[in-house]
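Handout, section B. The chain below has 102 residues.
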Amino acid sequence: MMARIETQPGAVNTRGEAAAALLKKAVAANPDWLVVLDRGAATGGGQNKALETLGKHPELSKTAAFKAGRVIVVDAPSWYLVGGRTANVTRIVQDLTRAVKQ
């Protein structure tokens, strides 16, 4: 589930509210798989802590996907900085395929 949130000069910033609503919707769907990207790791913000963060989240950690260990933590730079490069797209597909086959 992804969302694009438009902002206009002078508009009320509802980004946090929209993100919370999307998260609530995702948890309610109780997904079989979670695909996680750590934006901080992609942009040089340190090591990937996405799985650790999910484990501490009171709702996401209760999903079927998390409980069954079906969480794919993707290579953040390849996803976040994809920029249309075929090498990155190939890596993304390979990562997902490998994770689902496990």
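Note. Residues 31-101 form one domain. Compare this with the example in section A.
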